[in-house]
């Protein structure tokens, strides 16, 4: 179950049939909510993580990705994406011809030329 603060984000991302979340960590609620809405979701992280439902998990590193994991996704997204992973995220999404979307931690800058979209409780960045 996702929190109210994630509702607008889930609404926005659920327009994609297939998505990959990069760096899921111990926060699989958005991936799970997208799965509940009928999206095909793959979650990745450098560490093995538990994910619910039919969310597929693949251990992968966005800085040295297995591109086949991301092929066919309409969007590659990351939540609380640190500045040092923004360029690798954008590069990966471009390689597989997917939209790239991410949020940051409140004070972190965006290092890529991304367009901000204001959601009720956070900003979603879209590249290009």
TrEMBL record:
Gene3D superfamilies: Vaccinia Virus protein VP39 (3.40.50.150). InterPro entries: SAM-dependent_MTases_sf, UPF0146. Transmembrane segments: none annotated. Belongs to the UPF0146 family. HAMAP family: UPF0146. This is UPF0146 protein NP_0772A.
